[in-house]
Structure formats: structure tokens, C-alpha cells
UniProtKB/TrEMBL annotation:
InterPro entries: MPN, RadC_JAB, UPF0758, UPF0758_CS. PANTHER family: DNA REPAIR PROTEIN RADC, UPF0758 PROTEIN YEES-RELATED. One of its GO terms (molecular function) is metal ion binding. Residues 1-82 form the MPN domain. Gene3D superfamilies: Cytidine Deaminase, domain 2. This is DNA repair protein RadC.
Amino acid sequence: MFIVCLTAICSPREVFKEALRHGCASIIVAHNHPSGDPTPSKEDIRVTQRLIDVGDLMGIEVLDHLVVGSQGYISLREEKYI
């Protein structure tokens, strides 16, 4: 597990940096919602699709994006957002 970004916005470069350094073929992205509600926002879905697109170009599959809150978590893959 790698912590890549501790701010509200991460660039694809930051997300994939450690995956490239370690020769990963795939990644799972996760972030928290401080509100406690793990429902993905439109921006969460947009960023996830951008990461998938960038990953496709680099040969690194984005397996899932988990949004975590005090009420549980949501898998964007399981919920068919990706």
C-alpha cells in the first residue's frame, strides 16, 4: 500500500508514480470522505475515469476505486460506475 496524496486533489502523475516505480500491473485507488458518507461524487467518478484512461495508456489497470466514510465504503466497480 502506498500513500500518494494527502490533499484534496491528486494528479494522475502522483497516483501512478509509485505504481511505475514498483512495476505494478494494476492499482486500486482509495480515498475518504470526511463527511462520513461514502457516496461517490460526480468529481470522484470523473477523476476515476481519467485515471482509467491514463492507466490504459501506461499499461496499468485501475481495478477499483474505493470511497471510504464512517458509514462504510463504496466500490465504484461494484456499483458499476466503472
